[in-house]
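Example A, followed by Example B.
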Amino acid sequence: MLRWPKHLILLIWSLVTKGACRILRSAPRSGLWYGLCCLLALPARAQESQVLRGRVLDADTHQPIPNAQIGVGSNRLGTSTNTDGRFVLRVPAAYQDSQLEVALLGYRPYRRPLPPLPAAELLIELHL
């Protein structure tokens, strides 16, 4: 089993939490060191979450639907729409291949694959 040295784990954690710029200022000025730090930071950047913005409207009246429940897949990741029918949902990279689900009592459930993120504001119309 591969064991990572403690100082390398701390370096990676510092890059992720404090930002690469501060760490690189105090680090030795070699190209190899800089390259190693950039390579180690790439996986952390790839796992960041993306933001999905959208608006939920009634399909017949085109009026905003407040309090609609927005979720990703069948997990606890979700939010609800505001009074203007708008929502913002942060989607972790692990869930970006999941289904987007929108539900509100009295309307048919909406289920579609998540669009590629980041994307323009998504317009969702719910049918009675």
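Example B, a separate protein, is given below in the same form.
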Amino acid sequence: MPPLSDRAKELKTKNKNGVIDRDEAGALAASFDEIDCDKSGALDGNEIRGFFSGEGCPKAAAVPAQAAQPAAPSTAPAKPAAQRGPGGGERSRAVRVDKIVIEPMSQTYPVIGRLAARRGGQVAARINGAISDMRVSEGDRVKKGDVIAMLAKERLAAERDKYQAAYRSRMATIATAEAELAKVQQELRRIEGLKKSAAFSRAKFENLQRDVETRKAALMERRTQAGEAEAELKRAEIDLYNTTIRAPYNGIISEKHSEVGAYVSVSAPVVSDDQRHEYRDRGRGADRPDIGSESARLSVSSSTTALGTWQRSAP
């Protein structure tokens, strides 16, 4: 009897008779009757090989002529034509295959290193003032432009109103100077039109010319003063805007340096804002996992994970 292959031998668990019985078929149980060509109730190596290779049932070994016995008439029914190939032989048998599936895989690897913020720094105050409201706590996620803290703005609002009133006053003086200049220019044109008449006075004409120049200079001075008042107003508005401390970029509040009621000066830190973290390992050689700069989820403790980018660093 043909021996079993190494793969088929793995199915042997009970009987030690060199073949696979029906109770040992396992995954072959569904096709047991089809594989069992000689209907012996057991599967040998040739039968299994013929089924999976598509060769069909193995042929019986030839018997020498002098020893051949007359064959008994076969009582097995002939196989239908649907099971025979074009040449009368067995048809190729179907082979079942598994579908190839592409899916992401994860790998767990112990490393020694440190978490470093990709971008981080202290968010500082741009003006002097007392903190009137703190909107964040340590660990909060913020987006660019989110309000972190508020400074007292009453005094700055009053200064803004004062500079706004001064600017309006300067603009009013400009309007007055423009009207006075227009009046003198009109009088000068009237006198100039009398040059050919006896009513023309050269002294008055020259006085009006000097008056026009004086009015022009006064108008220019008032426009300059209005520009200074406008600059003061813009500075007051900027200071008032800066009473609201905002996040300069997306990140996480890693530390608070001040609280409500504290007085901060220009450049004094209010909070620390860190962006997404990177992991920098201290492994070397074969100790490093080959993941390049791919995104990695790091287990910092039994209940804390950090999502970041792996970045190798020199030992």
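On Example B: Helices lie at 6-9, 32-35, 45-53, 154-192, 202-241.
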